[in-house]
Amino acid sequence: MRFQCEKCHSAIAIDDIVMGEPLGCDSCGEILVIPETTTSPRVIINDFVICEPLPDLNLPHTLLPARQITLDRPAWVRLMDPEYIDDNDWVIDFIYEARARAKDKDFQPRPITVAEEKMIYFQAYERGDSPLEEIDAILSMDPDL
User: Which numeric CATH code is attached to 50-139?
Assistant: First the structure.
């Protein structure tokens, strides 16, 4: 698991995970608490750091506000529900859905990537100024995709 230091924003990678335990940042020495889950705020998935939940938005557990690290921009990370990880057809459909949306020039918000990291399959989308509309679009399932 990788997560971001609250003080210096360095990435901290740990193999032996003890969720909720204190840990010192190698870069700045700040004592941090290891995030409680692999999708908690400050956890890094691929090129995205999970952010604090947006106030007043009742988001499903599979859609998380995030920040793309390399381009320093807001994003949405949509996770594939873990119960489908062993279903190859579901994984393929999840990947094709993001690819189809990327080809659709009218689909907003724009998909950024679809990938897998340590058995966490995800799609990432641009995050703009209309979070409610973006959430509805991301979560809608298009049978024609």
Answer: 3.30.200.20
